[in-house]
Amino acid sequence: MLEFSGPVWRILFLTQLDAPLAPARAPEGRFHYSGQTALYASLSAEGAGIAIRRYVSAGDPPRALQRATVTGAKLVDLRGQSEASVVWQDIHAKRGTSPTWRCSDRARDAGADGLLYSSRSRPELGHIVLFDTSPSLIRANTPPTDWTPPYPQPALDR
Question: I want to staple 38 with a disulfide (CB 3.0 to 4.6 A). Which of 17, 32, 34, 97 is the partner?
């Protein structure tokens, strides 16, 4: 486990800016399933744009880029590990579960605050998921900026 402190970025709908550090609303995601808390972010603004591509559609409401700061998080580093980079949605659709959940379950059991993992389509970019969203670990300390997708079609990443 490593200790991580530094900036992270999220892309949110403008309607989410009153709670920019709210956990994922979806009951299931790459590293969480029903009943678990997970806040997904990226280690760069560029990474946040890559990560959200799958979820961007023409005609979506406006979005903003929110920077936050993580302080002293105990993380399991899965960057470069293929087990964490599978297209979990396809496996979940077939099996009702995801192998990536084993990664997060092990980290949660070990007392980690979250995980670091690589972007599937751009492995040099990294993402973070936090299981604990308390203000002692993460704070949004700068105003959000407007964000417009720089690409015409959604693609896969998270």
Answer: 32
pTM value is 0.90
Top pLDDT among 72 and 148 is at: 72
pLDDT tier at 89 (50, 70, 90 boundaries)? confident
d(CA 141, CA 138): 9
Q: What is the rounded CA–CA span in Å between residue 33 and residue 101?
A: 7
Report whether pLDDT(156) > 70.
no
- A 10 A CB-CB count for 38 gives 20
Reported as type and span, the H/E element at residue 145 is strand 145-147
Q: Is the per-residue pLDDT at 145 higher than 90?
A: yes
- Neighbour tally for 56: CB within 10 Å: 16
Domain locations in the chain as residue ranges: 2-147
What percent of the chain is helix, strand and coil (3-state, nearest 5)?
20, 30, 45
What lies within 8 Å, CB to CB, of 2 at 6+ separation is 74, 75, 77, 116
